[in-house]
Amino acid sequence: MSRELLITLPALNEAGNLPEVLAGLRARWPSAALLVVDDASTDTTAAVARAHGALVAALPFRLGYGGAVQTGIKYGLRSGFAVVVTFDADGQHDPADIGPLVEAVGGGADLAIGSRALASGSYRGGVARRAGRAVFAFLARALTGLRLTDPTSGLKALGPRGQALFAVSRFPDRYPDADALVLARRARLTIAERPARMRPSRNRHSMHGGVGSLGYGFNMLFSLFVAATGRDLHHKE
Amino acid sequence: MPTRQLVVFLGLVLVLLLAILELVRRRVLRVEYSWLWIASCLTSVLLILRYDLLVALTELVGAVVPTSTLFFLCILYLALLCLHYSIRISDLTHQVKDLAQEVALLRVQLRDPPVAHPTIRGGVASSGDPA
Fold first, then answer.
1. Burial level of B21, CB count in 10 A (0-12/13-18/19+)?
2. What is the nearest CA distance from B32 to chain A, expressed in angstroms?
3. In a mutagenesis test of the B interface, which of A3, A34, A74 is the best target, namely the one with the most B β-carbons within 10 Å?
4. Residue A50's closest chain B neighbor by CA?
5. pLDDT 10s digit of each residue in chain A, 237 long?
6. Chain B residues lying within 8 Å of A78, measured CB to CB
7. Where do the H-state alpha helices sit in A85-203?
């Protein structure tokens, strides 16, 4: 198997969506390694993923989106993949959008983000989520000095340096969003953004969805503050 | 402080102190967690034997009765203990997360070893891989 491209999909109870998602990825990226991180699903997610030719990293208990996505990135880092792409298992991302992200990493970016805002006609979520995204995009811009339009996007491509940063134990492991970008900027990574079309998630319990709550907003604000002003991630007590 | 009170409180604190030491000796309580308890016991002993210190402390912080100072110290101590535990729990959360991820990554390797490793090949082959 080629060590060029790993596509990792954090999945929580996605047995229904995985066959189509994995088939779509396989058709578009025949030589890529596919790794489904099963976040302690209660359905047949792991078996379905294996049946459709993906590797499966089965977590012993639920870690949530950030912990699951980090598992896939750790796998890519240790196996020496040139590019690791994080891709949602619920079918909201389009395999064709991976191309520009991989090219961006090949062109020197350490982290390339698929942005809904840059893609015309993309599904952008409800009013609350769009408002939240705008706030965090503004804060991320203020804190990083970069024009980042979609910091909450789950579609990312990581080069080796990006993988190394996202794999650090103390990296934000709830929902690595705007705070992750601030940390990436502090670590002097090169960040790029490419358009990506998103479809509405078909799974109501989508890992990345349903978090448009007030609690999430406050957590992210605080996490942003910590990311911007906190101690170095590698600091040892 | 009346002698009866002094004996009762001193006895209680000494029993607690001995219990803590015994827990550490039996390795039920880890040494690094025991020092806070031991420190609180020794503080109690000091305040029981030297009641005038508690009175002086009461005047220093501006409290009216020594009892309030004592309660205040107790609450402060418990709050610090909670903070100490929160820090430990945060640390443990990271460690548990890392361990869970390690388990998941090892599971990938067991099913799909990247390269056949001489030391584990026999074990994996004999256990049989259904996939």
1. middle
2. 15
3. A74
4. B131
5. 458 999 999 999 999 999 999 999 999 999 999 999 999 999 999 999 999 999 999 999 999 999 999 999 999 999 999 999 999 999 999 999 999 999 999 999 999 999 888 877 666 677 777 777 777 778 777 877 777 888 788 999 999 999 999 999 888 877 667 788 888 988 899 999 999 988 876 554 444 444 456 677 777 777 888 887 877 777 654
6. 105
7. 98-106, 127-144, 160-166, 178-186
